[in-house]
Design a protein that fits this description.
Number of strands: 11
Order of helices and strands: EEEEEEEEEEE
Radius of gyration: 14 Å
Strand content: over 45%
Largest sheet: 7 strands, mixed
Structural class: mainly beta
Shape: elongated
Helix content: under 10%
Amino acid sequence: QVQLVESGGGLVQAGGSLRLSCAATGSIFSINRMGWYRQAPGKQRELVAVIISGGSTNYADSVKGRFTISRDNAKNTVYLQMNSLKPEDTAVYYCNAAIATMTDARRILYDYWGQGTQVTVSS
């Protein structure tokens, strides 16, 4: 069983910073892609940032220059450093990862999601 456990959300004023963490636990063989998505009320879930095992990253245009994604492969953890936060960044942030498990000898990558963490930016 694989789980993604998120932490670090909260309430912050505009211009402030938050750091989200997401740790993957369980019977993990390898992790390829790790990333963050967000969903604001009444809107579809959207990609925020993603990082693959080699270290390449991709960001939504709306967060470029303000957010930084990183990962610690030894800890199976991905981070999202969010600076210069804006009220429009308010959303539930979800961790996502493509993981191959020890229990599947085919080593197929499956998508896993965290439970979500609320980020609220006040103006």
